[in-house]
Amino acid sequence: MLTISSVSKSYGSLTALSDVSLNISAGEFVGLLGPNGAGKSTLMGLISGLKTPDAGSITLNGVSANGGDHQARHELGLVPQNIALYDDLTAQENLEVFGALFGLNRKTLRERIDEGLDAVGLVDRRRDLVKSFSGGMKRRLNIIAALLHQPKILLCDEPTAGVDPQSRNAIFELLEHRNRQGLTVVYSTHYMEEATRLCSRIAIIDHGKILADGTLAELLAKLPAAEQLRLPDNPAVARALPELRSLGIVASHESGHTLAIAPTTQLSAVFRVLEKHNVPSTTRSLTRPGLEEVFLHLTGKAFRE
Amino acid sequence: MFTVLTLLRKDVRLFLRNKVAVGLTFIVPLVLVYILGHVFGVNRSSTGPNGVTIAVVSETNAPIAAAIRDAMQQETAFRVVTTWKNADGVESRLTAERTRELIRDNQLRFGVIFPADMMSPKRFGLRLIFLNNPRNEIETQTVTGLLQKVIFTSAPQALMQNLRDQAVSHIGASETDSFYNRLSETIADFFDFETERVRANLDAGTLDFTDPAEIDPNANPAMVAPDSFIESIVSIENEQLAGANVKSPAATRVVGGWAIMFLLFSVSGASTALFEEKKAGIFHRLLASPVSRAHILWSKYLFNMLLGLVQLTVLFMAGQFMFGIEVVPHLPSLLVVALAASIACTAFGMLLSAIAPNPAAASGLATFLILTMSAIGGAWFPVSFMPEFIQSISKLTLVYWSMEGFLAVLWAQKSVFEILPIIGVLLAMAAVVNVFSIWRFNRGNLFE
Q1: ipTM entry
Q2: N or C, which end of chain A has less CB nearby within 10 Å?
């Protein structure tokens, strides 16, 4: 459905994207996960046709996304990073403006507005000025404004920035619901828990490059360990470290040490070493690795939110 | 104290980094002070207008006409013209009728005619005709005052010399000399003046024989109040060639300048909405839909243009109700000028959005340009009061041409057809500014 081929984009001497390629099929929920400044918004801007790539191409159902083709615009919905609404218009007036730009007739537009406001719990506030809304309500309306014309693909550029948990859940449920109905979603975020919960596929992006792309399981499989043991920084652990290094990879950090247990290592062997050096069991914790560990593994550095 | 100094240093740093604030604090006042200084003549010995074109038509060969014309040419406030280049490029001597046409057409605003009967054997004194189009009250009053000064200074002297010359030709030099001697003695004896001084003054044509301090208030009125006497011998007939039928002249003269200044402020304020929409990310949403940059810009342009048209119409209608300006009878022509002015002002507002990097800069630049254009365009003071190079620049401002349009309709009561050249200038200005703005929008980052 969406094909991104060897796309590069620079701003002066700053390379925002370098040779990025990604294929997204219909019905997928793809997360673009990366820290601030990784190039997510630039990629969103290129897909939505707001920016033009220096090299490479982006096609949506075979049509260039940058050619100003109105058909491509009709198939695409953009939820901008900012709350792109008119504060001095009511919720309904905002939706009427953005819906009308897609050529929806009055009756259809009214139905879609009713449906959208109902989906995000804003029916009762439809005649209120947007400036009277909370941040979460604005975020919900921001998404509905991008769905009125029933696009085939929805680009969400960090759509939950600064919202309360209740609104965040409402947004998640709305997107999941629409995705189940067949909407393809490209979701840019720097919240790992969002990507973990929502996305059927995650592309990890940093410094303008896609470092890894796959399902959560596929990404985790790239890690050298299936499990991790977190240990404090104390004399007992320090004595145990030389032996632990033979059982996996030890990463030391400010709060202690993390042992990524090698797949070939028996967990019991690790515990024997810890007991041998009198490391109290209350100070250690066994965890399953997540996206943060994947990012650490791929970049050699912690995820910077 | 250290805390205060730290905070003070921070404020200085922030101020110096804010180029708009620096500009508004120093550059805007300096430019306006320069213009106002020239208007009020604070840096030159003479104040008032500069090089106001005034036509002089002489229908008589009387030497006194040439004497007055020469005196007018000596006056720096005036630029005396006696010929005019026609549309076909041929320069011809001005006639009274041609001068009247030019003044009615606002190509000239003032003229002096020395008619064939400027001096008549049937009356004592001079007769002149002062043609004028008093569309600017301050300018007209000032020019009238200066003209009277020049005429009243030079005319009696020339008149007396003329009388003496006529006497010499009729009764001979020796008889005239004898008559002047006796006249000098009589005046000197009657008023207790020195005979030689009276005789010298009579020869020079000067009627003021003594120092004002020596004048006895109870003496001959002609001597104590020379102006009254001069006015009795110099008759200046005033002939207003435009605006004579205007019911509320004072309000009609100023309404155009005020209206266009307020319109510029409104339009520049509305155009900063582009920055607000950019900041809110609305352009991203719009441009991701079937909307182009051109759609966005044209919608803003049309909105501001309509806003300007409505604002001007409301202001003029209010002028009719509050000050009696005759708007309704000229409404079609006025709407045409208002539309052209709105288009030009909107182009100016869009230019601000195109060249300014942010709303604060746009606002600062707008303040600077609006005040400057209003000052040099003639919204505050007559353009003729400014240095000649500023007078030339004023014709490049849309304030000047908008005011020309409004005055052409409300003051000179011209038809739509007659104001087409002014409309053409306003639209041409808008076109040039729009081309530049589009070029800037394409190169700028407003939509990034």
Answers
A1: 0.81
A2: C
Task: Using pLDDT thresholds of 50, 70 and 90, give the confidence band for residue B162.
Answer: low
Alpha-carbon span A60 to A70, nearest angstrom: 12
pLDDT tens, position by position, B243-278: 888 888 888 888 888 889 888 888 887 777 888 888
Q: Name A233's Cβ contacts closer than 8 Å, sequence gap at least 6.
A: A252, A255, A256, A257
pLDDT at A67: 62
Question: Within an 8 Å CB–CB cutoff, is residue A86 touching chain B?
Answer: yes
Indicate yes or no: CB of B288 within 8 angstroms of CB of A77.
yes
Residues B328, B245: Cα–Cα separation, whole Å: 15
- Residues of chain B contacting residue A83, judged by C-beta atoms under 8 Å apart: 280-281
Instruction: For the beta carbon of residue A223, count every other beta carbon within 10 angstroms.
Output: 19
In whole angstroms, what is the distance from residue A303 CA to residue A293 CA? Answer: 9
CB within 8 Å: A50 and B282: no
Residues of chain A with C-beta less than 8 angstroms from the C-beta of B282: 84-86
A135-147 helix and A91-100 helix, angle to the nearest 10 degrees: 30
Instruction: Give chain B's contact residues with A (Cβ, < 8 Å).
Output: 279-282, 284-292, 447-448
What is the distance between the alpha carbons of residues B95 and B113, in angstroms, rounded to a whole number?
Answer: 9
Contact between A51 and A42 under an 8 Å Cβ cutoff? The reply is yes
Say if the Cβ atoms of A101 and B448 lie within 8 Å: no
